[in-house]
Amino acid sequence: MTTIAIIGLGNMGKGLAKRLAGRSNLVLASRDKAAATAFAATLPAGVTVLDQDAAIAKADIVVLALPYAAALEAAANPALAGKVVLDISNPVKADFSGLTIGHTTSASEELQAAAPGAKVVKAFNTIFASLFDLPATQTAAIPVFVAGNDEAATAVVAEVVTLAGFAAEQTGSLDAARLLEPLGMLNIRFGYGLGHGTGIAPAWTKLAA
Fold first, then answer.
1. Measured distance CA(93)–CA(41) in Å, rounded
2. CA angle, corner 101, sides to 98 and 102, nearest 5?
3. Of 14, 88, 97, 107, which residue is the least packed, with the fewest Cβ within 10 Å?
4. What is the pTM assigned to this prediction?
5. Residue 149 CA to chain centroid, in angstroms?
């Protein structure tokens, strides 16, 4: 069974952990180890809590469930070499008014540059954490867009997406994150700025020819 390490236990990290616990070998890492241990106790048995370095060393897939700046710092860890690294971040400004980078690069591409030996894949950045609290039957058709340069790594992340109860939508190479991160920002604007709430997610509708 694949070992997945989730680094960071904010709302998205906890949401993913709830969906993946019992379906994978799950390892959690957080700056607050006591809080992480207490959270792990609410999940199905078998979830391990380690420090960040140990979690990365143990994992096949490392989920950087961190704000962009913290994810960039974590990406410098040489132990990520050879690992599939799942980036869920959006490089949002402190006031959530927009993105700090884009158009010519993306958070995912910057993480890949910081971790050249890793296989960085973008996913989960266009959904809100509240969706993880719904029954998986309600989210099974919601797309999670996946982008990465390594075909095998993107296939692995697509399996994680399905395991977490969503529909994987491949979007091509990692530079597709330049499009996915503004899409995540648009979803934030709809959810908070325009009052639609967090029970929303972007999707494409295929019309009959």
1. 34
2. 95
3. 97
4. 0.96
5. 16
Pairing of strands 119-122, 167-170: unpaired
CATH number belonging to domain 3-193: 3.40.50.720
Residue-wise pLDDT tens digits, 70-111? 999 999 999 999 999 999 999 999 999 999 999 999 999 999
Helix (H, G, I), strand (E, B) or coil at 147: strand
Q: What are 134-173's pLDDT values in tens digits?
A: 999 999 999 999 999 999 999 999 999 999 999 999 999 9
Q: Which amino acid is at 48?
A: T
CA distance 51 to 22: 21
Query: Which token pair is 176?
Result: 């597709």
User: What strands, in cross-sheet order, belong to the sheet with 143-148?
Assistant: 48-49, 25-29, 3-7, 61-64, 84-87, 119-122, 143-148, 167-170
